[in-house]
Amino acid sequence: MPEIFLPVALKAAKLSGEILMRHYQSVLSITEKTPGDIVTNADFESEKAIIGEIKRSFPDHNFLSEESGSENRNSEYTWIIDPLDGTKNYARGFPFFCVSIALAKGDEVILGVVFAPFGKELFTAEKGKGAFLNGKRISCSQTKTVHDSYVAYCDGNGMENRLFTLNLLNAFKRDAFEVRKFGSAALELCYQACGRIDGFIAVGAKAWDWSAGGLLIEEAGGKISDLQGKPWNIHSKNLIAGNKYIHAELVKRLLEIQKQK
Asked: Does domain 146-259 fall into CATH 3.40.190.80?
């Protein structure tokens, strides 16, 4: 992989972080995109800055971003961008949000950068080179069982996704030590990659929510798949991640829950 990709992604992520912090806890323009899903002026400004920065170096690459959608230039490379993951948190002054930038070659994610500007935490991963937090190598937890695990989740938008997730939670709350929702899938995946939580379940997620974080988990020694345990790619909608000890147990339990429906 060309060495120039990571520096460009880092520059774009830090530029976005500056924008997000400049607007944080200030008056925002808030618009409801769909029921239960909002966007702010900070989302748009961050996205414009990220895409502009990357295009200066790679004008012929494809782009897939949450707010502006898809831009296909028939390149083998696609930049996958969430300019503000955790918009609801951000709009309420809750400091759990981030910018997520991934690069895919074909359907495979080869680069991931997630920057949480409030805590000044920069997560990075390149395929085959490990995962890092502020330049220090990170790894997933060593928790051995679901019973002892902290599991986070994301239920996307729409009543169908939320009802499905509620059924999962009712079952997992009997199994896991703790089940939590933080409101930023990309950052929750990073928290798993550095061992702060042990597992993560996403229902109805989009590529920009988890592409960077998914690579971070793999490079940190964890496992990520669809809900049936099959390999993930940028087209996956539902995901389950865990450290190397509990991932198979999480998948097995989830399949059992679905059979009981």
From this structure: yes
Report helix, strand or coil for 209: helix
User: Residue 163: what are its φ and ψ, rounded to 5°?
Assistant: -65, -40
CATH 3.40.190.80-classified regions of the chain:
146-259
d(CA 122, CA 201): 22
**Tokens 């782009």 map to which residue?**
63
Whole-number Å distance between alpha carbons of 131 and 136: 8
CB 78 within 8 A of CB 63: yes
* Residues facing 224 on adjacent strands: 241
- Residue 169, SS3? helix
CATH, domain range 5-137 = 3.30.540.10
Contacts of 3 (CB under 8 A, 6+ apart): none
pLDDT tens track for 77-115: 999 999 999 999 999 999 999 999 999 999 999 999 999
Residue-wise pLDDT for 172-195, tens only, equals: 666 667 788 899 999 999 999 999
CB count within 10 Å of CB 131 equals: 25
Residue 35, C-beta contacts closer than 8 angstroms, at least 6 positions apart? 157
Give me the count of residues in the chain: 261
- pTM (2 decimals)? 0.93
Which residue intervals of the chain bear CATH 3.30.540.10?
5-137
Of 225, 169, 222, which Cα lies nearest the Cα of 198?
222
Start-to-end Cα distance in the chain: 45
- Could you report the per-residue pLDDT of 228-240, keeping only the tens digit for each? 899 988 888 889 9
